[in-house]
Amino acid sequence: MHPSRGNKFESGRLGRRDWLRGLVGGVGGWMVVGGVGFDGGIASGEELGASAESLKFRVRSVVDLSGEVHLSAQNAASTRKDGKPEIARRAAVRSVSTLDYDEQYEIKESESEWLGYQYFHEATSEITVDRHETRTALRDNSRELVRLSTASGLTVAGLSSPLFSAERELVQGSIDSMYLDGLLTDREVAISDKWMVDRAVVAKLFHLDAVLEGDLTVCLVDLDEQRAHLEMKGELQASVRDVPTRMQVEGKGLMDRAGGYVSWLAVQVLETRDIGEAEPGFEVTAQIRVLRAPIESMTSGRELKDVLGEVPALRGPELLQYQSDLGYYRFLADRRWSTYRDNGEEATLRYILNNRRVAQCNITNLVDFQPGEQLTLEGFQGDLSRLAAKTGREILEATERLSRTSHRVLRITLGGQADGVAIRWVHYHVSNDEGRRLTLVFITDEASLEVFGEQDDQIVETLELLAWPTKLDKDVLEKTAAESAVESASVPAAGKTNR
User: Fold this and answer.
1) Cβ proximity of 331 and 463 under 8 Å
2) Cα gap 140→122, rounded to integer Å
3) How many other CB atoms sit within 10 Å of the CB of residue 176?
């Protein structure tokens, strides 16, 4: 059988350049005309001529997940012999997510040039963690998304507005449909023949950093004139943002012989992920079902080439929109920031890189001033001078400016020691002409300053203080507070990650 888009076959006889050249060969370029041979295989013949440089599919996926979330104690040191956080609490989790979208993508020889365009008809999820239910739906103005190559791989970004973190988790899905055809092999096989999928393809398919041990094996189990019937199985040791995870994968699939693509997939994934610095661990079972069919055109009436001119700026794909529904402010920040708590009055965010906490940001809403009233830089510096005197810190710099959102920004940097480690504290006071104001304190160690870069500036420059509602709805506030309390325990579907 020569059923597929080529992936690098385990025997090594097909190199990566050959695989990519095969990918560019076209829809059906991995299929050959001929039919079923007498031995049950697919006979060789003339290649079909469709071009794979621009592929269009309608994709619908449903993920049904159940299991438990593993939470560590706040600020508790690791107590296990292997140095991993001890599980302090377990909480039941159940979620159902549905995605329905048109997808167009270009596959080129260099993966750094791959591009994708998606138009979503539906994107919803319902997650229940410890009896607290959270519903997420993609906003109407975020139906059009692009997939862009960045230093961290293919990243999804909104065309009209940045995505919220929950939206990005939702649309990413449990399986990356751009890599579905990587399950196929480029060599001729007969019924009962097996092949191993390249580990790099498996990692991208399930949104993993890398597969460290184990393989995913695919077997051709049956064949008719229209379809090839596949079964797959594997046990994988992998990593997601440097957090170890273990997966057992078992499923079935169908390949459309005329088009040479995977048209249907049903997979069960049992995944156990360790507790990470950015999110809890979990032990879950996910039932994943995918339907896929080629389409002539996108429902939006636009093509990938039409939207390229609207692609966000260089850093745009790396940024997400963060909004406090209780604190009434929002900003754009790197996707590696995680919200740990937000009760409206105070919020804590952490910047996690390679499963290491690089920095923390504490945000505090302050009592409003009268419209037009402002805190002076001297007054802010006086308050922090008293703090520095009490804690042995030193004021290093004090500046003021207007942000891009026309807010007045006071910035004071302090240096000092904490437990023998050199620490940098960057204090901000942000206010507007209506009297709204809040403070942000970024905390990082001196050794991480280069890695931290200008993360604080990105947040402050895009921070918007929103008007308080004229009347607060107590029931709505209590519901939002409850959802915020369990947000850090929300679990992506098995194999999914915030890349």
Assistant:
1) yes
2) 10
3) 23
The string of DSSP codes covering 40-87 is SSB---PBP---SSSEEEEEEEEEEEEEEEEEEPTTPPP-STTSPPPE
Residue 283's H or E segment, with its range, is: strand 281-294
Contact at 8 Å (CB) between 246 and 236?
yes
| Contact present, 60 and 480 (Cβ < 8 Å) | no
Euclidean distance between CA atoms 200 and 16, whole angstroms: 11
Core vs surface per residue 317-342: b (16+ CB within 10 A) or e = bbbbbbebebbbbbbbbebbbbbeeb
pLDDT tier at 310, thresholds 50, 70, 90: confident
Q: Over 101-155, what HEC string results?
A: EEEEEECCCCHHHCEEEEEEEEEEEEEEECCEEEEEECCHHHCEEEEEEECCEEE
Query: pLDDT class for 29, splitting at 50, 70, 90?
Result: very low
- Residue 309: pLDDT band (50, 70, 90) is confident
For the chain, domains (ranges, CATH) are 16-310 (2.30.230), 329-468 (3.40.1000.10)
